[in-house]
Amino acid sequence: MQKPKTKTIPALLTSTLVALLPVAGVVSAQNLVRESFTISSGAGGSGAAQTSCMISSDGTSWSGGVVGVQGAASVNNLGSHALAANVTFKYNVGSAVDSLNASYGAGHWTLANPKLTVQYTLYANNSRFNAGAGTFGIYWVGNDTWVQGSRNPVYATDAETLTTWAPQNALLATEQYGWSTPTYTGTSADLYTSAWTTDKTGIRQATLSYSLGLDTSFVRDITAASAGSDPDVSLYLMSTSDTLGLTIFTGGGQSLPTLSFDVVSVPEPSALALVVGGLAGLIGFHRGRK
Predict the structure, then answer these.
(1) Which segments of the chain does DSSP mark as H helices, in order?
(2) Is 19 within the bounds of a domain?
(3) Which of 77, 95, 109, 241 could anchor a disulfide with 134, C-beta 3.0 to 4.6 Å?
(4) What integer is the mean pLDDT of 191-217?
(5) Is there a domain that residue 17 lies in?
């Protein structure tokens, strides 16, 4: 009579390890909450001047109810061309980070799915703002000490120039702005109408949401923030097309520029994971002796 086959020690350990692996998935990252931060609203007031700035190519700056990321070839409401310009936004995340650390523990959470959301308008009743399709980049910058003023922040057309003002920076996204909504494409006629006063939530004004990359320095700038020291994180929107004309509400619209992200847990080794690792070690030890 043939004896039933018995599993060797390596085979037994391997089968046990395979059985435990699906359970070990409980130590993966979990979504905890979603955080959102907006800039201070205003039409050039002290709050807005601290958190939004439009820097023109001649070094002058603006912090009103709207700001514009634009190239010199895009068209303003007079049919001519205003100066090229870039935009910076500053978000105070320190208090929220302190609360997250109190709830989950410093180092036990991180961020995922960061986004920048803005409300734009196709019509601006101010000749300093251009309109038109084009491209732009969204940068994280490590310089948070800026306020709206002459040549601060700096106007830059490339990362090298940006580095002269913010030595620490990182490109988080490269975007195409089509000067349109899903149901409407803007035309030059929008620059010569009163749409600004009658269409605050309609086809000429809508929101855009851009996904941002998880650059290590950008993530660290947020997770290391605190209300008592270095509470801010800054973004820089750089025009990369002469035809770009993106006008963003920083006051007076339905929504303000918003930075948001998911808060996710940082997995820790569990007792189960240690058991799995131990079994794998025993397999290796047995095979080595054999």
Answers:
(1) 9-24, 46-51, 94-104, 159-165, 195-198, 216-223, 271-289
(2) no
(3) 241
(4) 85
(5) no
